[in-house]
């Protein structure tokens, strides 16, 4: 199950942006509520030692109402929604981390880690707020999240800028952003736990980290009901993450590519 859910973390924000671009392109932002159902294929490379590249199907579900929305893996309620500004409260699962059995024993050994001494890094549930400023110059998005399940006990802030323009019969949206993870969150997902250190694992605590990324989203309607969507993203890992003994050696960044097909109802 974790092998299917992991890439959906990467999918959440890009799919939300793609879906929103398509919604605005169709002139439906103030229209009736609509559902979207579909399926896609994700290709992504994991930074964790031995996980490698994965290719897998991803289910797509979206809902756009006057206030309530479902975008990718995010569920939210808009309490401000006009042409220039959208403010919403939201919740979504945090699917970072790993199952120990998915890591490579040999790759971890190269980093000086005995896989048998590690523990899983569990999924969590985040709550927070999302703010979108939209104008002729593009869109600015600020998302503030906190771990409500106290798995890491940390917080995350993401700031991104995107600009959409028509390309043929579709909409192309280049974007650039940065994600900040608090000390507790970074230490949980990229450091070693105290109980692991007590067993003999090297003590590594990266503290807070900042991860920049660039990407591009694409949306194209196929008739009245069907749509093609996709995205590509590259995240550059800071030294605090690259130096972790849990990370594959010589890993400078992570990339993901997705393409999907949805039908609106």
TrEMBL record:
Keywords recorded for this protein, A-Z: Cell outer membrane, Membrane, Signal
Record localization: Cell outer membrane
Leader peptide range in chain numbering: 1-19
CC per GO annotation: cell outer membrane
GO biological process entries: peptidoglycan biosynthetic process
Family matches, as InterPro entries: MipA
Chief place of localization: membrane
Family, as annotated: Belongs to the MipA/OmpV family.
Protein name per the record: MipA/OmpV family protein
């Amino acid at each position: 199950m974790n092998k299917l859910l992991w890439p959906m973390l990467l999918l959440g924000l890009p799919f939300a942006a793609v879906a929103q671009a398509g919604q605005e392109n169709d002139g439906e932002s103030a229209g009736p509520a609509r559902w979207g159902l579909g399926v896609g294929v994700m290709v992504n490379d994991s930074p964790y030692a031995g996980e490698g590249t994965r290719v897998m199907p991803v289910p797509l579900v979206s809902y756009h109402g006057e206030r309530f929305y479902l975008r990718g893996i995010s569920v939210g309620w808009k309490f401000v929604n006009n042409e220039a500004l959208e403010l919403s409260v939201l919740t979504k699962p945090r699917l970072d981390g790993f199952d120990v059995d998915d890591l490579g024993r040999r790759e971890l050994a190269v980093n000086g880690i005995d896989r048998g001494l590690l523990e899983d890094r569990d999924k969590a549930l985040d709550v927070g707020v999302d703010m979108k400023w939209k104008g002729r110059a593009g869109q600015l998005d600020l998302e503030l999240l906190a771990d409500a399940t106290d798995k890491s006990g940390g917080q995350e802030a993401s700031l991104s800028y995107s600009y959409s323009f028509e390309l043929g019969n579709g909409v192309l949206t280049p974007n650039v952003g940065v994600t900040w993870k608090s000390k507790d969150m970074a230490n949980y997902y990229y450091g070693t736990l105290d109980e692991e250190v007590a067993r003999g694992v090297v003590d590594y605590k990266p503290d807070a980290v900042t991860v920049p990324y660039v990407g591009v989203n694409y949306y194209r309607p196929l008739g009245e009901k069907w749509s093609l969507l996709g995205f590509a993203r590259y995240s550059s890992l800071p030294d605090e993450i690259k130096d972790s003994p849990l990370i594959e050696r010589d890993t400078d960044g992570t990339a993901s590519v997705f393409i999907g097909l949805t039908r609106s109802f």
